[in-house]
Amino acid sequence: MNRTKGDEEEYWNSSKFKAFTFDDEDDELSQLKESKRAVNSLRDFVDDDDDDDLERVSWSGEPVGRRTRLGSFQSLSDALSDIPAKSYAPELGRPKGEYRDYSNDWSPSDTVRRLRKGKVCSLERFRSLQDKLQLLEEAVTVHDGNVITAVLIFLKRTLSKEILFRELEVRQVALRHLIHFLKEIGDQKLLLDLFRFLDRTEELALSQYREHLNIQDPEKRKEFLKTCIGLPFSAEDSAHIQDHYTLLERQIIIEANDRHLELAGQTEIFRKHPRKASILNMPLVTTLFYSCFYHYSEAEGTFSSPVNLKKTFKIPDKQYVLTALAARAKLRAWHDVDALFTTKNWLGYTKKRAPIGFHRVVEILHKNNAPVQILQEYVNLVEDVDTKLNLAIKFKCHDVVIDTCRDLKDRQQLLAYRTKVDKGSAEEEKIDAALSSSQIRWKN
Q1: What pTM value is reported for the model?
Q2: Cα 358 to chain center, whole Å?
Q3: What is the rounded CA–CA span in Å between residue 77 and residue 27?
Q4: Which pLDDT belongs to residue 4?
Q5: pLDDT over 50 at 74, yes or no
């Protein structure tokens, strides 16, 4: 997008924009290179101190909490957005009532000094290429991001792009400021021309890829992403672009089918739980949550099957289980929750196994108002005794508290807990029976 002279002046006089800082070494390309870890980054649905990078999802279908760099392929787009830069000096403005001095006697150093003080002065007197470059070098010397950008705006307007690019190629500080400025004002055409001139192929590819953000029509966006697959990215980054295309392609199919089912009004899940948002352009984690909610029992061969999504995008078991648990617990589908954690060994024996830890399972079940009988079953599966006892007390799983205190032979804690249960309740009777038992050798 090309900007007029007026647009550039508005950029400089607006407090909304900030100049590039030498300390800001992050760029979109480095963020894209870090994207692999976040493709599978489905943050936890509960607050937890564990280090697992699991993305939180709300039932509305919108991500909540902090966003991952690439927790999805919408997040990929977010990860590629510009990073606000810091400024070295106050932004240049035009103080009200300031006297305008357009003296032709100012040297480049005098001009830069006035610009640093926020004074308005014309740069038009610098007509020769030598004078313009000297002005730029003076600006770079004083390490003032605002002044450098002001001079670059002047050079951009008064030099051909070939000359501008050639001179900035050997002036890396000024070059970085120009790249940042072009990103902020959205001059994509000049930015692409600059990357081509510099032969910075990956940055060129990244800038072209970012154009999908401006395409609203899902089909057109999908086709554009398909053209991005062959851009000169690294092999790893190309795989991410391919996944982005694949995800959107699948979302288009799912959206069309589900919209039809919802309008027909014959599918129970859509009647009971109308969709709150379109699945189009949603992050990967949200797509998986949606699939676990509306299409959990579908055969693996369908695009909307959670298992199909898991295999297609190589989602680890731990993250898949967490997402499925949140979706099925939201529906209070306790049988599905039970099946999610039930495994069989080679002898045919069944046991409960939770790759995310049973303490997390309990937290999610409680958040979704699971019956106390179900909560107690999963609290009992927590291996660490202290964690189990704390969870049982927190969620009023009385039987678990009583049994654990009895097994620990902790008479004092059992006495203290007796005051927290209802008078004359079955729990009080159970505590009294334990306290009066001659079979238990209490440690306190």
Answers
A1: 0.65
A2: 26
A3: 14
A4: 53
A5: no
